[in-house]
Design goal:
The protein is an alpha+beta fold. Helix content is 39%, strand content 18%. Helix 5 packs across helix 9. Residues 418-436 and 574-603 have low confidence and may be disordered.
């Protein structure tokens, strides 16, 4: 039965352009949504800018513009980037909207009516110069634990201590430098500690709708006791004023998630649909994609607010980790970043990035690493060297020899066709008659498992299976050698039929990759001259006999390493310049340069061997499909290697140079015919090759385009 889905991502804060973490999250959700649509399911996919709060108010003030002007400018940049990276939101709204204002007031009123809103008088730091209460991050002082200076009002960056602003020693306002004073104010609190909330959340968070690691973390919070939530901010504040409470505003984290509902309402009303009726449908699934830094809000406050305001609660909250750059945490100030805007402005294909992220994404809450070398190798090898290569190998023959017309023989007639070709040396041998239907059956047979992986958000597994099939298809093309059939007189029908089969296999692989590569899939649909866009149901169908395809145009280019270097070049302002001495100043004292360390000595070349000796070594290209630490072995990693015809387990002494996560998916070189060696950890079935001088290790890797199982000669 078709599913009905209401899907959102976390709302981006409207004080600046997207960072690469936003693009990762939106790509993850977009791939999942596109897959659901390919399955024929109904999806409402919405988002909005998170536009309220003190930071936006203060930034607008610093720029000399109104907050409305600031968020309008940011919204324009967000919409542009969403289009550039192929994110298919049905609607992108704003929390600074009438829909959000009305919904926030309604939910607050319902919670108050149900007894979940309390009022308390609190004391807060107040900036007497700025004339405003100070949020925690706008108060600085000395850490009460370690004494470090210039620390924020909620935690110490030096020792990691967590505290309240009133614990700071010698506090001052980060806005004006003034010493803040304590001032009382009456605030509203959401009673998260209410036994009814706790009972509901213990059930809702532990019933399988959250990932295990998320459910475990939430259980820790529940076991430690929940605190009531201050949902009030005092004027001046850019936000939604609490009805009937002049000078009191909803804290941004109350109205921000309500923005999900406001965006859905705005979208449905424009389509003439009743949002209340849609949300009341018991078959509707409400799904949120978020980062691990906002779990508390989305698994405690948000579902409790909805539950006790009498509204639908989320069915799933899918959490992902952070994105790192070559193992380092992203930091714009330190120049460790990948700017999505720069990526697009340089002309790098957004679908390269979508593919790379998909190849690393899974259903767990773990960080992903953007490794530039791995990025280049995966795209050039997988997308160009394997996937697109299938179409380019067949399209030339179809265009030049047959004016774009496919074989009149149906693909199921392969056996009969080959019976007619037995007299030709290029034709398959009689004992190989089942090979053509077998490859078609094999590629089609993966549909259910790939679909299951997409649905479970195991995108990396889905991609590995598709690339395995791409390897198999390329291997099949190499075995059939259409270029040799093309040289034989009278074998036009055979060549046309085989190239038709290759394009059919390419069509199926395109369906498998369509959630990840929507623009490429669109170009493939145009190239194949299809009457309608491809869906998952089209996997078992086939191109019609005699169908005419369009002239082939290159679908994807390779990444130029220079583009990556330019992308990662830090901005000029991030490059520190050496200070220039003042005019007339004494010469700067400098230390004498230290002689750089000498490189490790290069060992002499070994004894001469014959070509026959070398021929005994079977060197193969291998893909690392899994890597893991070996307990009680400081130097070893356990590698699972795909060598085309089978997988092997190898224990390699490379732990000092590589982590398991950065190895998965890489190509390397292995000795495939080395006698197995029994170790106390298991059997090592070969050896990977690496260079090194004793202190450094460099794993060998083949050039882009190599595939697992290729013999190295």
């Amino acid at each position: 039965m078709p599913r009905k889905l209401f899907v959102t991502t976390a709302l981006p804060y409207a004080n600046g352009p997207f960072h690469i973490g936003h693009i990762m999250e939106y790509t993850q959700a977009d791939i999942w949504v596109r897959f659901q649509r390919l399955q024929g399911h109904k999806v409402h996919f919405v988002c909005a800018d998170d536009t309220h709060g003190a930071p936006i108010m203060l930034k607008a003030e610093a720029e000399g513009i109104s907050p409305e002007e600031l968020i309008a400018r940011v919204a324009e940049s967000h919409r542009r980037d969403l289009a550039r990276f192929g994110v298919s939101f049905d609607h992108f709204h704003s929390t600074h909207s009438e829909e959000n204002r009305e919904l926030a007031a309604q939910i607050f009123a319902a919670l108050r009516e149900a007894g979940f809103i309390a009022t308390r008088t609190i004391e807060q730091f107040f900036d007497p110069v700025k004339g405003m209460f100070l949020p925690d991050r706008y108060i600085k002082g000395e850490c009460p634990k370690c004494g470090a200076k210039d620390q924020y009002g909620d935690s110490c960056e030096s020792c990691g201590a967590v505290y309240t602003p009133t614990d700071l020693k010698n506090p001052f306002s980060a806005l004006t430098g003034a010493t803040p004073v304590m001032k009382k104010s009456e605030h509203f609190f959401f009673r998260l500690s209410d036994p009814r909330c706790v009972e509901f959340l213990k059930s809702w968070t532990q019933d399988g709708r959250l990932q295990p690691e998320v459910a475990n973390k939430v259980r820790e919070w529940l076991d430690g006791g929940l605190n009531d939530w201050d949902i009030t901010r005092d004027a001046p504040y850019f936000g939604i004023e609490i009805p009937g409470e002049k000078g009191k505003y909803f804290y941004v984290w109350l109205d921000a998630p309500i923005g999900y509902l406001a965006s859905l309402r705005s979208y449905l009303e424009k389509k003439g649909l009743d949002v209340a009726k849609v949300l009341a449908d018991p078959k509707l699934e409400q799904i949120h994609f978020i980062g691990k830094d906002i779990i508390y809000f989305h698994t405690l406050f948000w579902p409790a607010m909805l539950k006790f305001a009498g509204r639908k609660v989320p069915d799933n909250v899918f959490v992902h980790g952070f994105l790192t750059l070559t193992g380092e945490k992203l930091s714009k100030s330190r120049g460790i970043t990948v700017s999505p805007q720069k990526y697009a402005d340089l002309g790098l294909n957004p679908e390269w990035l979508r593919y790379y992220l998909a190849a690393k994404l899974n259903a767990r809450v773990e960080d992903l690493d953007f490794n530039p070398d791995d990025f280049l190798a995966r795209v050039n090898s997988d997308l160009v060297g394997k996937y697109v290569n299938i179409a380019s190998r067949a399209a030339g023959f179809i265009a030049k020899r047959f004016a774009g017309r496919l074989s009149e023989e149906p693909l199921s007639a392969g056996r009969e066709l080959k019976h007619k070709l037995r007299g030709n040396v290029a034709a398959p041998a009689p004992d190989d008659e089942e090979q053509v239907p077998a490859i078609l059956f094999e590629v089609r047979s993966f549909a259910d498992q790939i679909a299951a992986d997409y649905d479970a958000r195991e995108f990396g597994k889905a991609i590995r299976q598709v690339m395995f099939l791409a390897d198999r298809v390329n291997q099949y093309v190499d075995e059939q050698k259409p270029w040799e059939i093309a040289k034989e007189a009278g074998q036009e029908a055979a060549l046309q039929w085989f190239c038709t089969l290759y394009l059919e296999l390419f069509r199926i692989l395109t369906i498998y990759l369509k959630p990840v590569l929507p623009k490429v899939a669109e170009d493939v649909e145009a190239f194949l001259g299809l009457a309608k866009p491809l869906t998952w149901e089209d996997v078992p169908s086939a191109l019609k006999p005699g169908h005419v395809v369009q002239p082939y145009r290159h679908l994807l280019s390779r990444i130029d390493p220079k583009q990556i270097a330019e992308l990662l070049e830090p901005p000029a302002e991030a490059k520190p310049e050496a200070p220039k001495p003042a005019a007339g100043a004494a010469p700067e004292f400098r230390l004498e340069p230290v002689e750089p360390p000498k490189p490790a000595p290069i060992l002499p070349v070994g004894e001469t061997i014959s070509i026959d000796d070398f021929g005994k070594i079977d060197l193969r290209v291998a893909r690392i499909v899994d890597a893991e630490l070996v307990p009680d072995a400081d130097k070893l990693l356990k590698l699972t290697l795909d060598i085309g015809i089978e997988t092997r387990t190898v224990f390699a002494g490379i732990r000092s140079a590589y982590t398991p996560k950065e190895l998965v998916g890489r190509l390397t070189v292995m000795v495939a015919n080395l006698a197995p060696r029994k170790m106390r950890f298991g059997e090592s079935q070969g050896m990977v090759l690496a260079a090194g001088d004793g202190s450094s290790i460099y794993l060998l890797a083949p050039d882009a385009g190599a595939t697992p199982g290729m013999r190295i000669k």
